[in-house]
Amino acid sequence: MASMTMADWQTLSERINHVAPSATLAVDSKAKAMKAEGIDVIGFGAGEPNFPTPAPIVAAAAEAVQDPKNYRYTPTAGLPELRKAIAEKTLRDSGYEVDPNQVIVTNGGKQAVYSAFQILLDEGDEVIIPTPYWTSYPEAVKLAGGVPVEVFAGADRNFEPSLEDLEKARTERTKAIIVNTPNNPTGAVWKPETVKAIGEWAVEHHVWVISDEIYEHLNYDGAKTTYVGAAVPEVRGQLLVLNGVAKTYAMPGWRVGWMIAPIDVAKAASKLQGHMTSNVNNISQRAAIAAVSGSLDAVYEMREAFDKRRQTIVAALNDIEGVNCPTPTGAFYAFADVSALLNKPLGASKASYASTSELAAALLDEGHVAAVPGEAFGAPGYLRFSYALADDDLVEGMKRMKQWVEA
């Protein structure tokens, strides 16, 4: 019996057919599927803190569960108390004032990214994306009918784009630029002068700035997050700040993010969200209030643990023949150059691999170590390792990779 196929009139939209699936989630899903089959896999794929959410935040959620007011629909843009708390947190951490009406609470930081481009872009508008980039940026641009324009900067420049390269990429269709520091996937923290120069360039050329600040508190070796809205006050009228509780407060499953934008943009975001999801889960919003308005002591404790893991993984990667890993100063990712391993016999099978996508697949299948290939971030030749996992697992995973590479 012939297998059923979709008729011509049942084809999916060109829009969705041109969007790539999330590579980080794909790697994580495969690793979890292998674990479910009883295979002992060490996962460096997803950027998901392994710490429990701090107890005061959980307690706030437990209390909220008992309050019937949280069982109802609430404002689409977010609980007024949370929007106010985020505005106060922005003043505390970023150093400048925003009105609570500029804040839109979203279902995780990823929805804030998606909404930003849906609001700003018309068909054919271009968005400059410093590369390596987080895997969902170009796909979110394409879903809004926009055109991603990649501007690559390598490890020799701390993965920071130069103003000259940005200017070369700018055209009459350039609508926005993405700033992401501390950076995913590289772990780079951009220099203050780089962030300031980009902000001033954007003001001069009337370009929107999308600043993803979700790793703002994860800095090491004296590095500091530079907030473009503080460094260049003039840019605030064309600035969208994206953030969330997932990374800083170990709350990836709570799904609370936010956008801070000029009032007209915030109103548009609320209008869009009103037709998509309406309000974010009220229990999670109550937990988020406790997170953003509470002490950062637990955050700094987690950062200390991340710092130790950072040093461990960088040393371990650089101890593997053919691997070169610069030391990241932010987030919780190591971005290793493994180009010297391509087209060379690896593992017990002594097979060779022409791309880091093939290499990562083999490392997972044979070495039982999950990492994300650089192709997902616009940077072939690299592998990204999240070190937001248990210390013992990190050491074991690096041991397995070294044995697999040098077998």
Please characterize this protein's 3D structure.
This protein is of the alpha/beta class and 407 residues long. Helix content is 40%, strand content 13%. It has 14 helices and twelve strands. The strands form three sheets. The protein has a seven-stranded mixed beta sheet, sandwiched between helices. Strand 3 (126-131), helix 6 and strand 4 form a beta-alpha-beta unit. Helix 3 (55-65) runs antiparallel to helix 11 and helix 12 (297-318) packs parallel to helix 14. The mean pLDDT is 95.
Question: What's the SSE blueprint?
Answer:
Elements: H1 14-17, H2 23-36, E1 42-43, H3 55-65, H4 80-94, E2 103-106, H5 108-120, E3 126-131, H6 136-143, E4 147-152, H7 163-169, E5 174-180, H8 192-205, E6 208-212, H9 228-231, E7 239-244, E8 257-260, H10 263-274, H11 282-293, H12 297-318, E9 333-337, H13 356-367, E10 369-370, E11 372-373, E12 382-386, H14 391-405
Name a few traits of the molecule:
about 400 residues, alpha/beta, seven-stranded mixed beta sheet, three-stranded antiparallel beta sheet, 14 helices, 12 strands
Major beta sheet summary: 7 strands, mixed
Number of separate helices: 14
Report the average pLDDT across residues: 95
What's the end-to-end separation, in Å? 47 Å
Quick structural summary:
This protein has 407 residues and is an alpha/beta fold. Helices cover 40% and strands 13% of the residues.
